[in-house]
Amino acid sequence: MAWFEVVSPGVLTTVQDRGRPGHGGTGLTTSGAADRTAHDAANRLVGNHPGAATLEVTAGGLVVRSVGAMIVAVTGARAEVTVNERPRGDWSRIHLSNDDVLAIRPPSIGLRSYLAVRGGIDVPEVLGSRATDTLSNTGPAPVRAGDRLPVGALADALPVEEQFPPPADLGDPVEMGVRLGPRDDWFTPASVRALLRERWAVTPRLDRIGIRLRGTGPLHRSRRAELPSEGMVPGALQVPPEGHPVLFLADHPVTGGYPVIAVVARADLPLAAQLRPGHRVRFSVTR
Fold first, then answer.
1. pLDDT tens for the 287 residues of the chain, in order
2. Three-state SS for 206?
3. What are the counts of helices (DSSP H) followed by strands (DSSP E) for the chain?
4. Which residues make Cβ contacts (< 8 Å) with residue 194, sequence separation at least 6?
5. I need a surface site. Which of 92, 99, 176, 282 has the fewest CB within 10 A?
6. Nearest one of 280, 200, 205, 207 to 249, comparing CA atoms
7. What is the DSSP letter of 111?
8. Partner residues linked to 38 by β-bridges
9. Domain at 174-285: CATH architecture
10. Domain boundaries, the chain
11. Using CA atoms, how far apart are residues 106 and 110, in angstroms rounded to an integer?
12. What is the DSSP letter of 16?
C-alpha cells in the first residue's frame, strides 16, 4: 500500500471531495472542494473516479514524501511544484518514485491548489464523504505534519491527455455574475445599484466559510425589520448590519439571519475560491 507522509502541511491543507449533499436538515452543508473545477481536473489527470478525494492546499507550503510509487497532479492556483527540489509542471501528470519529496510553493496567482493522487486519498468517510467541513468540524481533521495519508483504489484508465491548459488569469477586477435576491428588496435602490457598480475589495478575513468584502461605503437597508433565519447556499452575498457583504463559500452556514442581496452564479464559484486579500471583485447581473 502506498501513502503520503506529510513533512509540512503549509498554511492549511484539508482532504476534500465533492462533498456530502443532503444533510442540510441536520445542520451540515455540502462542503467539499472550494474550487470544484480544479479539484475535478486534478482527478481526471490521474484517472480517478469523480468521487475520489484530493488535498486542498491553501496558500501553498505543503510538502509530502511518497511511500511507494504513485501518479499525481497539481491544479488550481498557479504555484511552483517541485519533486526533490527540481521544478515540475502544474496542471500536468507527475510520476513519483518511492521516497520522492513533492512540494507546492506559495502560489503566484490564486489561493487554493489541489493535489490528486491516482486512487484518491483514502481516509475514512463521514456521512458518505471524505471532505473536511471546517465550520462543523465534520470529516477528517486538517492535515498535520507527520500524518500518513493512504492512497486508495478509486481509479480507472489513465486519460490520453497528460496535461490540461491552466485557467486564464483572474483579472482585475475579477468579474462575477450574480442573480439579485432573494432579499434585494430589503435594500435601497441606490445600494442595489452600488452592489453592481462598486469594485469590492477582498479583505484578509477569508476562509472556507466565506469572504468579507469591502467597498467605498456600506450598503443601506430599506427595511429595519428582523429577518427570520432562512436557508443559505454557496455564493450567497449576505449583508450584515455594518453593510459590507460576505460571500459564502463551500463551508457556509446552512441558515442565516441577515438578508442576501444576491447570489453569485454557480459557474463563477471556482473564481471566488481563488480570491486572495487585495483582489477586487465586480458583480454583474447574469441570466
1. 899 999 999 999 999 999 999 999 999 999 999 999 999 999 999 999 999 999 999 999 999 999 999 999 999 999 999 999 999 999 999 999 999 999 999 999 999 999 999 999 999 999 999 999 999 999 999 999 999 999 999 999 999 999 999 998 999 999 999 999 999 999 999 999 999 999 999 999 999 999 999 999 999 999 988 899 999 999 999 999 999 999 999 999 999 999 999 999 999 999 999 999 999 999 999 97
2. strand
3. 3, 20
4. 215, 217, 219
5. 99
6. 207
7. E
8. none
9. Beta Barrel (2.40)
10. 3-150, 174-285
11. 10
12. E
In the numeric block, which cell numbers belong to residue 113?
A: 491548489
Largest CA distance in the chain: 63
Burial zone of 189 (CB within 10 Å; 0-12 exposed, 13-18 middle, 19+ buried): exposed
CA-closest candidate to residue 114, choices 28, 205, 22, 10: 10
Which three cell numbers, joined as nine digits, stand for 141?
Answer: 481533521
